Amino acid sequence: TEVARYLGVPRLYLAANSGARIGLADEVKKLLKVCWTDNDPAKGINYIYLSKEDGETLSAKGSVQGHLIGDNKTGEERFKLTDVIGLTHGLGVENLQGSGAIAGITSKANRDIVTISYVGARSVGIGAYLVRLGQRTIQHVGHPILLTGFSALNSVLGQELYTSNMQLGGPDIMYRNGVSHLTAISDIDAVNRTLEWLSFVPECRNGRLPMLPTVSSSSPLTGDADRPDRTVAVKPKSGEDVRDCLCGKEVKDAGFLPGFLDRGSFFETLSGWANGIVVGRGRLGGIPIGLIAVETRTTSRIVPADPADLDSKKLNLARAGQVWYPDSAFKTAQAINDFRTEDLPLVVLANWRGFSGGTRDMYDEVLKFGSYIVDALRDYEQPVIVYIPPGAELRGGAWVVVDPSINKEYMEMYADPDSRGGVLEPEGIVEIKYREKDLKATMHRLDTTLMEYDAKLNELVSSEASAAEVSALQKSIKQRESELLPYYRQMAVAFADLHDTPGRMKAKKVIRRVVQWADSRAFFHKRLRRRLAELDAVKKLRAASPSTTQAEASSALKNLFCADRKAEKEKEKEKRSSRAKSLKALGLVPRMRSASGSDRTDDEEKIVAETEEEWQDDDLVLKWLARSDVNERLAALGEKMVAEEVRGRCQSHLHTVLQVCTEEVRRSGGDDDAVKAAVKELYDALFASSK
Known about the structure:
Layout: H1 2-7, E1 11-17, H2 26-29, E2 33-36, E3 45-51, H3 52-61, E4 64-70, E5 77-84, H4 93-112, E6 115-124, H5 126-133, E7 136-140, E8 145-146, H6 150-157, H7 166-169, H8 171-174, E9 182-184, H9 187-198, H10 242-247, E10 249-251, E11 255-257, E12 267-269, E13 277-284, E14 287-294, E15 299-303, E16 315-319, E17 323-324, H11 326-341, E18 346-349, E19 354-355, H12 359-363, H13 366-378, E20 384-388, E21 393-395, H14 396-400, E22 411-415, E23 420-422, H15 426-433, H16 436-446, H17 448-462, H18 467-497, H19 502-507, E24 513-514, H20 517-544, H21 550-585, H22 597-614, H23 618-625, H24 628-667, H25 672-690
Parallel strand pairs: 1-6, 6-7, 6-8, 7-9, 14-18, 17-19, 18-20, 20-22, 21-23, 22-24
Antiparallel strand pairs: 2-3, 3-5, 4-5, 10-11, 12-13, 13-14, 15-16
Helix pairs in contact: 4-5, 11-13, 15-18, 16-17, 16-18, 17-18, 20-21, 20-23, 20-24, 21-22, 24-25
Organism: Palpitomonas bilix
Protein name: Acetyl-CoA carboxylase
Domain CoA carboxyltransferase N-terminal: 1-213
């Protein structure tokens, strides 16, 4: 494990154990004697002892500890045992200490590298913990993961309640609760699944992603080639399997309709647990990504009955789609953490109406597991794209835990034109902010019949008409209001819905761009390529200057790009100006007035604005980053950043250094000229070293 951590490579653990080793000191066992209470075994043990000779011999070897006592009846000297150490190492607690060391290093490894465990035989006690600490687990369908065997549990409980270890830790338990990510029917099946998993992972931590070659739109190749710029043919629909829009599906008379991911690339994990969330790995135009999607159909959670609890029974709990429950929130957070150590870019197809806040779910810690999502995203160091697909909605706390402000350097949010996002659903907003009195006020402002009734009522009141006439008219007004209320409530809902559109999201700058679902594959493929190339350049800058923050390095890279683009534009401008002067000298163009200072300032501001806008152009930035001279300039920029940091530190401490220098020169008898010479020599040395 230490070697794997040092190299940054994945670690595969083949789990097959029966827990911590146990043992007894055989050299003591064959010599021990028992003093029974009143010489009656039925009354219990008084103490265990050895003969004086055996006790002294084993004590000298360090096998036992005790002291000599005399027997009151026989007067025999006995060596009463207080501690059995044993000559053999590995009989008890020392094994637990070793197990703790293994547990600690496995936990560290899971944070630092990719760890995968295959349970190819029973895994008991500390073995079970090691499997869980490694997180990514493939479980053979015929072998359990458990803390205590069923026979031992039956002994503790005093009755035969459990019939097998599979009942305690088989796939029906561990695959359903998220301990096991995948199941395998054989060792070779587990090997194949492991290899498929590793095919998405870089060779080592922070290494290059294993991207597959793609087919461009201009390529003559056809057939099964999956171009990154193709459209997404399967649109997400409520009540249908979300995997169809990810993987594509076969349609009668139409053939195969491709989905968001490359065909056949989706590798789903944790599918037995919290079915309301779909997580896995896939490829987007050859780029490996981690993906989280949301099930819109109603799912169920099965809770098995516990034979040790006579009152328990099997429960089948229905779960609404588009809602985070405690287990699905935990699953989301765990998947994000897994993707983080696998160095995968993350795509979240967000479609949540919020968190379940019922009594049972609040008791089951939905708040805790929801906050884990924020923790996981905050530590993410690869591009994260949160996209709200068509027909989807992202509201309330569900928006908060995936908002890009959690991790601005890496997260971005996008939305389809037909998606929605807001604090509450329109119906809920209307109940609070567009109540019945507001609806009636709108009716009286817009409905011509009510406007006529209002005018007539005012006339009746001003003319002091009879109470019967006023009452009849008021009754007509109420009747008209009742007739219009359902329609105006629909209008209010539609009005509230207009506040949740992607247009408003973009105007408020909470999303970066509106992206059509059909074009999402091509757009996000290009965006990921740009972001990965940009982050690779930022890593080079930070490697040269480790104290530089992510934001500072990103800003330096952007400034370098803008400076390049500005220089190119100014060069092009000079060419145009020179050409115009030549034409002017030949009399081929009319005399032009010379540019004033304000014109030049306006031109410079325009160039700056254009370069800022070009920084958002993924194609342009990708071409710039691919230039051969950019790497050299990045290295030079890194050296410059280091030099500026050293120079700044020198300046911050210069006063103290010069004061010490002056004192040393004077202490050695130097005059003012000697002090000046020493200070100059030191100053020159400091700044020479900083350069």
